[in-house]
Task: structure prediction
Amino acid sequence: MGKSKNFSGQPIFNQLIKFIDKSEIKKIAKQHGAERYVKKFSTYNHVIVMLFVAFEGYHSIREVILGLLANAHKLSHLGLSYLVRRSTFAEANQRRCSQVFGDIYMDVYRRHASFLADSRLSDADLRRLYIMDSTTVSLFKDILKGVGRKPKEGRKKGGIKAHTIIKASENVPCLIRYSEAARHDHMFLEEVLSLPPGSIITFDKGYVDYAQYEAFTKNTIWYVTRLKDNALYEASKEFDIPDDADSGVLKDEEVILYYGDKKKEEHRARRIAYWDSENERLFEFITNNFELSAEKIALIYKKRWQIELLFKQLKQNFPLKYFLGDNENAIEIQIWTAMLANLLITLVRSRLKRSWAFSNMVSIIRQQLMNYIDIYRFLEDPEGSWREIIKENKMKYQNSLFPEMEGAYF
Result:
């Protein structure tokens, strides 16, 4: 029988890391001094091994080394000529700056961002929409201060918070910052000022900071969020609701929000009261954009749920419950690697015509990571090779005196 059409001269893992520019890793490593005092375990080797951990879902350094040994004859495809020792691996996670992995992630993102944009998103306003939120990774050791009150019994866990911004049209993080879980979300709002003028950003009311909202207005960055229940404001003008407006729009008005020392500072905003009939819930939105319709403001905030689905995708497919180090740097490296693994699979998915659930793709890649399968051809037509085998078998027996033996092999 002929060879499978899904056969590839490279393992699936190698096809995934082709999105990473090896020469760029060397530049980034040089900028951070990441190769100082390094004899063999280079930054490139470190990135590949950490991705191996993320894709395979290993829980300990011992498992990682055994997994590499089991695939020793295939490691040359990945550019690995050196099998790291456990002690060297642990030391690298502690010593090599985690920002190296962050810069590598951002380099891959910037190089391939054009493939990530969802062409189905035709709304011009949503194409310039950014979504911001944070997710907390609990730590069993008190490495970073956890959020909330100290429990009466036992010791409060530590936690690391990933503050994330995504573009609504891409669904992968375009900006990530880490902090201890106890740090308030609004401290991250300064990062928003780096967005292009005219951008729209939405976030929940945990980010309330009227001084930053005023800075957004001065930089022509439009925000959409919810009004806090205890917000101090004064209504100054009410806008007419068009006859063809959504029936859920109850009020559209201009308000002045007070903040600062003795509440003397003012921020001009727009307040929209919207009744969600589906969930039977009242929402109060505020924004500094006075041009978009009230319905569009409600739709923009509804898109905020997209980042929650991304966090769910990351935590389900790359669960960060076991860490290969007990220090902040090692934990950040592992989180960055999970983000990078998620990005690489998303890039593969963006090149496919066939629709795949992300979790199904992760499952296939995890099971076949070091096998010589053309990942694109297989995912486009998983049954293709099987049909070829059946076809060859039929051709073999079409002139046979014993056609009943055609299915003897099945």
